[in-house]
Amino acid sequence: MLRRLALLPALLLALVLPGAAPAQEDVVLGLSQNRIAITANFDGSELLIFGAVKRETAIPETPLDVIVTLAGPSEPVTIHRKSRRLGIWVNTSSVEVDRAPSFYAVATSGPLDEVLTQTEDLRHAVSIPRAVRSVGATIEGAQSYTEALIRLRERTGAYQMLENEVQVDQQTLFRTNVVLPANLTEGAYSARIFLTREGRVLSRFDTVIDVRKVGLERWLYVLAQEQALAYGLLSLVIAIAAGWGASTAFRLLRG
Amino acid sequence: MQLYLPIAEVSVNIFLLLGIGGLVGVLSGMFGVGGGFLITPLLFFVGIPPAVAVATSANQIVASSVSGLMAHLRRRTVDMRMGLILLAGGLVGSACGVAIFARLKELGQVDLLVSLCYVVFLGIVGGLMFFESLRALRRSRGATGPARPRRQRNWVHVWPLKMRFRTSGLYISVIPPILSGLVVGILSAIMGVGGGFIMVPAMIYLLGMPTKVVVGTSLFQIIFVTAFTTLLHAVTNHTVDMLLAVVLLIGGVIGAQLGTRIGLMMRAEQLRILLAALVLLVCGKLAWDLLAPPADLYSIGEDG
Questions:
Q1: Is A1 among the domain residues?
Q2: Where in the sequence is the domain holding A244, given as residue range(s)?
Q3: A240 and chain B: CB distance < 8 Å anywhere?
Q4: pTM (two decimals)
Q5: Size of interface A-B (CB pairs under 8 A)
Q6: How many Å separate Cα A34 from the centre of its chain?
Q7: Is the CB of residue B143 less than 8 Å away from at least one CB of chain A?
């Protein structure tokens, strides 16, 4: 009896809260493709991420910002550092990052430090350094190595910082384009959409885009992994047949 | 036109790959080298991961060597007996080499070892061949000079277990061929190449075989060593990219046929001086990479 009484205020509070909470805003998402097929002539892909903000209440005064992130599957990475020994450049030290995303893109509707506060960035691991660090938490005293990893991957387009690349219309519709490079790793790519006001995250939406090899690509990949000996022998047979075939063809051509 | 490679997981221009295959094929046919010392760095350059590049070029070398060998077989410029003896040494050596490679991988610094091996061996072999063929060329310019004694008797002629190699016109001990096969096998496993660029000079200068026979015999030996390497890589590392290999070998087999024809039109000394220049060029490039300050001190490792 006593316990039930004690619960009452909490129940009342719960009933009251939804009305008192800031206007609930949710993401309704659309993707130009929710699975990406890697075929033999795959040459990168452009992914259109668009959507609308669903809300029950009037649009608040403060402007709405949208952040879209897309992360590829994580894998361990070793970063080597060279230095000069006896006149030649040698890898002298290295740091292993347990897990770093193979691809990572952040698109925002404004400068990142304005649309997202430091604490929110820390919590949701949005910016590139945070995203890399959050999954590879075991690095110690290796700041410059992580920076190098990011620098090298930004240069190849594997990591992309796309500030002001999300267009927001009427605080309701948003859209952005992410260019996926040709050297894409297979796996589940996670897309996250954050709605923010004054740097605070109001709502977050997560979805997964499947990137898969198909057809011949898939068949070869699976064979190489699971039937390595057969795959190796097949490679050799093809090589020998091609060499023999070409030689015979040339002889016939000359008559 | 771009082609996505399933194992390498990169997309590369198909004509670029055909070109690389063709170029290496021409060299293979002309000189009897597998071209691994050239194709592997070229593949790095177009963005193929090193592990895949090494394994796949071994596979591609099998194809271009078969194509080249066929042409030589018809011309009867293959010393089968010598080839088999070299091969026996080569397979043992290659198994040893793989073991050494694995041991060094545990200790780290394999990349450095491979680069140093390339620089040292390409430098020695290229330099020796270059000066020797320059001398030969100058001597033949002197035209009517007395024919030099065909071959001196040296230690290869006095060791036991002598055998007659009719195609090469030799009667020498089998121990030197087995030993050179062994050494080349070890080096080729460590350096990820067929070993033709070491084998060819070894056959010419060490065993005293005639240049015409050397090319075909070297190709014969290379086929088996690289086939062995391909299988080993496919089974242990899953790094043979069949699609990449097929594209490379389409270019390669055509190139090899052209190369064999070009090789027959040229004089042996010219052939050797060209190969020497090429070997020295690759050596210089690799040495420069070791000595020059790198563009970025940091690099991302392959597997982690």
A1: no
A2: 214-255
A3: yes
A4: 0.69
A5: 191
A6: 14
A7: no
